[in-house]
Amino acid sequence: MAPPSPRPVRRPAEGRPGHRPEPALVAVAHGSRHPGALPAVTALLELVRSLRPGLRVVPAHIELDEPLLADALAALPAGDAVLVPLLFGRGHHVKHDLPRAAAGAAHLSVRTAAPLGPHPLLADALAGRLAETGWTGAGRPDGGVVLAAAGSRDPESAQDASRTAELLSARLGGVPVVPAYASAAAPTVPEAVAALRAAGRGRTALASCFTAPGLFAARCARAVPGLPAARPLGAHPSLARLVLHRYDEARARRDAPADRPARRGGRRLARAS
């Protein structure tokens, strides 16, 4: 009896002629001197890798932590990359710093994903961290939440925070959620708490719209001692899924030009997402 014919061996996709490797996901955190910031971002990215095995996930920071974004991009081989900001609104970093870094990486074709907020997955992560505090105001007539965010002078950033507050409110059964800011915008966290309490919302908690511990997250929590305060989002499963969702959205823009288009007349143009 003749031995069975061997099955054809499939070549891995990476080795097929003409195959374009999957773009690297460059996750861009703000950066912080807080000792817990880098471990929180690292844990989040480990979770992202576990959800998408084989995807190249590269950490980067705008300032204060290493690797800085420019260095992370310079270390990548020529090819495609998607910058995913671990930020929650359309502020200066998303509109200016990330496209500027993309424009400086001449060996890469770079797209910039949307910030993480607003999105229902972000609301899920915020609700999950609130639940960890033991807060019991969800769906109650005396419940209220202050959504603590970094703050920005860009009005679109405030719009994004307001929309995130609406999504979180719906996720919590209609409890009022008031966005408040650590800097550059109003109201402050104490002002938002006071407004909720004046409206009869004495069972108030603080939701932390920050990826990792840092100056602003700590400032917001310290401003309202005794209030149930959620920790930064870190390696929450819904946040990891959202990072990949933003990456996939950016990859799907196949017909749109990359954020670092080809040179025109000797100048390189950059476009923000």
* Overall number of strands: 7
The largest sheet has its strands arranged as 2-1-3-4
Q: Supply the CATH class of the largest domain.
A: Alpha Beta
Fold-level CATH name of the largest domain: Rossmann fold
Which class best fits the helix and strand makeup?
alpha/beta
- Which strand-content bin applies to the residues? 15-25%
Number of domains: 2
CATH-derived architecture of the largest domain: 3-Layer(aba) Sandwich
> Can you tell me the residue ranges where pLDDT is under 50 for at least 5 consecutive residues?
1-15, 260-273
Q: So what's the overall shape?
A: elongated
DSSP summary: helix tally: 8
Keywords: Lyase, Metal-binding
Organism: Streptomyces desertarenae
InterPro entries: CbiX-like, Sirohydro_Cobaltochel/CbiX
Biased composition (Basic residues): 263-273
Question: Can you give a write-up of this model?
Answer:
Keywords: Lyase, Metal-binding. Pfam families: CbiX (PF01903). This is Sirohydrochlorin chelatase. Residues 11-21, 252-262 have a biased composition (Basic and acidic residues). Residues 1-21, 252-273 are annotated as: Disordered. The structure is a single chain. This protein has 273 residues and is an alpha/beta fold. The chain has two domains: 22-117 and 237-252, 3-Layer(aba) Sandwich (Rossmann fold), CATH 3.40.50.1400; 120-222. Helix content is 36%, strand content 15%. It is built from eight helices and seven strands. Strands 2-1-3-4 form a four-stranded parallel sheet, with helices on both faces. Helix 1 (37-51) packs across helix 8 and helix 4 runs antiparallel to helix 8 (237-252). 48% of the residues are buried.
